[in-house]
Structure formats: structure tokens, C-alpha cells
Amino acid sequence: MVDNKEMIKVENANTQSWEERLEKEVVYSPAVNVFENSEEYVLIADMPGVEKENIKIKLHKRELTIVGLINFDEAVNRKYVLREISIGNYYRKFNLSDWIDEDNINASYQNGQLRLILPKHERVKPRDIQIL
Predict the structure, then answer these.
(1) How far apart (Å, rounded) are the C-alpha atoms in residues 21 and 85?
(2) Phi/psi at 94 (nearest 5 deg)?
(3) For a FRET experiment, which of 17, 36, 87, 109 has its CA 20 to 30 Å from that of 54?
(4) Distance set, CA 78 to CA 10, 39, 75, 102 (Å)
(5) In a structure prediction context, what are the per-residue pLDDT tens digits for the chain, which is 132 residues long?
(6) How many angstroms separate the CA atoms of 77 and 74, rounded?
(7) Structural domains in the chain plus CATH codes
(8) How far from each other are the two terminal CA atoms of the chain, in whole angstroms?
(9) What whole-number distance in Å separates Cα of residue 129 and Cα of residue 123?
(10) Count of Cβ atoms closer than 10 Å to residue 109 Cβ
């Protein structure tokens, strides 16, 4: 059952900044997997229900912030018979090491998964050293 407070949040959601929405609405930390190879780190974050245009990625002073905002209109207006899946916005923050080449970070989003490619600086990649 949906209460009136939730309805008010939805009506005001379009006029609020994402920072304001995170302060007032339900927020989850997305599940994340990070793996590496010799060239890069790959970060995959699960954010089901988020539209690509509602994802914000911010990088400032080696701090990477990921935000995914849910459109509550559809979920609130449904007549549920059974509701087990919780919905809410997503927020996660990471401190990046100086090994990351911040200028070449790439992001893509497909099927509810955000994928960030965090390339390593040349100075930290493995290399062969020739004997002279």
C-alpha cells in the first residue's frame, strides 16, 4: 500500500535536483563488482529500473560518485497484488587511487548494469624490460 507522503515526493521529483532527491527519497547502495586486467579496472554496478538518462556520474578530486534515480510515477500508480521488490534511488561513492587515468574513464549502461572502464596509467601497467 502506498501512502500519501510517497505521492507528494513523486509530484515534486521533477523540480528537485538529484542531491535534494537523495536527501528525501529511499536510497540504496548498488551491488558492485570490480575486476582488473593488465590494462584497466572494470566496475559493474547493478541499478535495475534506472533509465540511462537518470544516471549521474561525477568525478571530483579522485572521488567517483554514481547516482541512479528511479522514476517513481510508474511504481506508485500500480495496483499491487503482491509487492516484494523494493524500489529506490541508487548512490555509491568511491575514492580512486592515482593509478587510474581519470581522463580516459568510459561508461556504458545496458540491461540495468552500469559498466565503468577505469584505465590504468601507463606507469603502473606491466611492461617488459630489455637487457642491454
Answers:
(1) 20
(2) -130, 145
(3) 36
(4) 13, 46, 6, 42
(5) 333 333 333 334 455 677 777 777 778 999 999 999 999 999 999 998 899 999 999 999 999 999 998 877 766 677 888 878 778 899 999 999 999 999 999 999 999 999 999 999 988 878 888 998
(6) 6
(7) 4-122 (2.60.40.790)
(8) 75
(9) 13
(10) 19
